[in-house]
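Sanity check

After download, print the first record. It should look like this:
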Amino acid sequence: MARGWESKSVEQQQEEVAAERSRNKTQLTAEQIAEKQRRTALQLSRKRIEQQLEVATNSRHREMLKKALADLDLQLGEE
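Expected structure tokens:
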């Protein structure tokens, strides 16, 4: 019987922590959310291109990847 009460107490504590965290988060506007998603997408693209650049052997392909990387850096720097 004690275990049942104990598990409910833990569950209640977890719910309270989750509720407090959600209250403490600042509410983002739709524009802020969209900008955050765009920035995340750019960062993921940058990582993917870096990985491709590590294994690319063709000089033309490497040059194209370097240009794409520079473009992404420019877009990330504008923010």
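If your output differs, re-run the checksum step. Summary of this record's structure: Helices lie at 2-24, 30-55, 59-77.
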